Amino acid sequence: MKIFGIKIPMMASLIFWAILWEIVGQLELSILLPPFSHIIIRLVEIVPTKMFMDAFLVTAQCFLAGIAIAITLGIPIGVLMGRSIVIDRMLLPWVNMFLSAPLTALVPVLMTLFGFGMKTIILTTVLFAIWIIVLDARAGVKNITPSLIDMAKSFQASYWQAFTKVYVWAALPEILAGMRLGCIRAVKGVIIGQLLVSVVGFGRLFELYSSNFLMEHMWALLFVLFFFAFILAEGLGLLERKFEYYAAERH
Amino acid sequence: MKSFFTHPLTLRVISVVIVFSFWEYLGRIPISPAFPTFLETMAALWEMITDGSMAAVYPATFQPLLIGLFISSFFGIACGIFMGLNHRAEWFGAPVFIVLQSAPLAALIPLLTFAYGIGLTSKVLTVCIMSMPVIVLNAYSAVRHTPVTMIEMGASYLGSRWQIVMKIVIPAASPVIYAGLRLGAAMGFIGAILAELLITPTGIGDLITYNQSIAEYAKMYAAIFSIMVFAVIFIEILERTEYIFFRPDKRVSQ
Amino acid sequence: MSTTAEAVSTATSPIAVEVEQVSKIYPGGVEALHDMTIQFPKGQLTSLLGPSGCGKTTLLKIIAGLLPLTTGRVTVNGVEVTGPGEERAFVFQDFALMPWASVLRNAAFGLELRGVPKSERNAIAEKYIEAVGLKGYENLYPHELSGGMRQRVGLARALAVDADVLLMDEPFSAVDEQTRRKFQEDLLDVIKEEGKTFIFVTHSIEEAVYVSHSIALLLPRPSRVSEIIRPDIDRSISPDAIRRDPVYLDIVERIWQGLRSYVE
Predict the structure, then answer these.
(1) Residue A74 and residue A5 share a domain
(2) CATH code of the domain made up of B37-246
(3) pLDDT tens, B104-136?
(4) What is the ipTM of this complex?
(5) Interface test with B, best of C57, C76, C113 (most B CBs within 10 A)
(6) All residues at 6 or more sequence positions from C211 whose CB lies less than 8 Å from its CB, including other chains
C-alpha cells in the first residue's frame, strides 16, 4: 500500500493491529483481551524467569529432536519413493492418509506407550512434520529433468553417487519447501503434544496460567510462541527463495 | 505376470496386508500391555459398531466440526478472495493471516475455554482457528496469482470487472482454493479431536479417553482407527466435489 | 522517417490502424518505445518483426488497449484508442484458454462476455471452430489438444467476435515447427476469406516473409521502425513453391543481413 506516494511494507500493518488491540484492551471490553502494552510488560517480566527458560528449553529440545528425526527419515524415504515406482505405490497411500488424518487422536496412544514425558512430545512432533517432508522430497525427485538422470547413468554413477550427488541436489527446491512446511507443522505438533501431556514445558505453564486466570501471562507466552514460529517460517522461506533459481532453470 | 505384481491396486493391497500383519505381530509379542493386536482392534471395532456405541458418539464430534468448517470455509474463502482483489484489504489482512498460519494456534484453546466455557462454542471456535488461516491464505494467493494473460484476455474481450472475477479469476483459483479447503478440513479434524481431548471429553474423544482410563485398549484403538478412516474419507469426498462443481476438465481426464 | 512515408505511398488500401509518435516508458524508467509512428493498411497482414527488446509486443498491447501509452496516440478506424474495444481482438502467445472450459465455450467466450445469448453465440463459435479446422473437437478441453490446436481455438475466439482488426502476439511461438507451417498456410486462407486487418508480432523472419503483405522491421535501443518491406511474392503458387521461390529467399536473406548486427 502507498501513503503519500511512499510504499509501506505489508508487515507494517501489524503495527496498526497492535494499536487497535491496545485501544480495545484499554476499553476493557473483554477480560480475554488485556491491553497490548500490559502484555509486553508482562512478557519482559516473565521471559527471564527460570521457570520460563526451563519450559522454553524443553520445548526447543523436543522441537529440534522431532524435526531432526523427521528430516533424516523423511528425505530418504521421499527420494526412494520418487525413484522406485513399487515403493511409491506401496507407501503413497499411507503418506496421504497421515497427511489428512487427525493426528491428535494418536497422541493418547503415544501417551499409553511412551508415558507422559518428552518422548511422547518428540514423537508427536515427528508425526506432524514427517509426511509433508516425504511428499515434497518425492515430488522434487519426480520433477528432476529426465536428461539429468540419464546424464548420471551415462557417466556410470553408482546408485549411492547418483543419490547423493544428483537426486538430492536436483530436488533441493522441493526438499527445502518440504522442510519449511514440516517445521511449521512441527511447531504445531510440539505445542499440541505439550498441551495434551500438560506436565512438561510450556504445557505446564499453560495449565498454570489458565487455572489461575492469568490472561496477561497467557498472552505473553503466546506472543513468544507466535514470534518464534513466524521467524522460523520466514527464515526458512528466505532460504528457499535463495534456491529458487534452481527451479527456474528447470522449466 | 510382472504387470500384475506392479499394478497399483495389487501393491496397495500388499502394502496394507504388510502393515496390518506387522501390527498384529507387534501386538502378539506384545511390545506393551497397552498395545492390542490388529485383530483384537477390529473385533472391538465391530463390537462398537454393532452395539451402537459408535453411532452414539459421532454426532457429538461432527456437530462442532461441521459448524466450524462451514464458518471457516465461508468466511475464509470470502476473506481470501477479497484480499486477493483489493490491495488495501491485502495490506491490512494478509500479514495477520501469514502470522496466524505459522503460529501454533492450538495454544489459544485454554484462552477459549476460559472465555466461552466448556460447551459447543469453544469447540466450534477451536475448529475455526485451526482451519481458517490456511483456507484464507490459499484463497488469497490463488486469486492474487491469476495468470496475467488470462486477465488480459478478459479485458481485451471487454469483460467487466465483475465478469472477469466471476468467469476467470475464481475458476482459475479454484484448484488452490480447494487445496486450502482440504488442508483446512484436515486441520479442522485435528482441532475437533484436540478440543474433545482437552476441553471436555465428548464424542469420539470421550470414547478414546474413557476406554483408555478403564484399560480397554482394543476399544480405544478401534475408536482412533474409526476417526482416522472417517477423516480420510471425508476429505476424499471434499476433493471430488471440486471436479463436479468447478473443473469439468479434470473429470474428463480421470 | 522516410520509411514511414514509403509505407503511406505504397499502401494501396485505406489505413485501419494509425500509430502516431507513441512513446512508452514503464514505471521504473525503462523506455520500451520511443516516438514511434507507423500505419497499418486495411484488409492486410502487417508483421512487426525484430529482435527481442525492440518493443514489438509492447506496441501490440498498446494498440490492443491493454497497456496505457505515455505520449502520442493510436487510432483505429479514426477513433482514438483508450482501452480494449469491440473492433479489435487479441490472439495470445500462450493461447490464454480457460482450462476449465470446453473448446466451444472458449471459442464463444468473447461473445459470452458481450452478453450474446447462449444458442446464438454457440452457433457463431461452431462456425469459426469449423473454419479453423477443429470441427468435431467442440466438447474437448484444452489439455486434450496439441499446442497448435489450442492456438486454433484462440484464433476462432478472436474471429468469432467479428472484430475488424486482429492482433496476434507471436501466435505460433509455442507451436512445434511442422504444425506451425500448416497453421501459417491456413492463416493465409483465413486472411483471404475474412478480409480483416491483421497485425502480427513475430521474431521468425521466414514466418514474417511467408504470411505478410508488409513487414515493419523494428530495431531496439532506441526502439524504432527501421524499414517497411513489402514482400512481392506470387501467392497463387503452392505453399511449397513459395518457400523455394528466389524472391522469398532473397527477402529472407536481406532482412537477416539487416538484423544480424543486433544479435549477439
Answers:
(1) no
(2) 1.10.3720.10
(3) 888 888 888 888 888 899 999 999 999 999 999
(4) 0.87
(5) C113
(6) C45, C47, C184, C187, C188, C191, C200
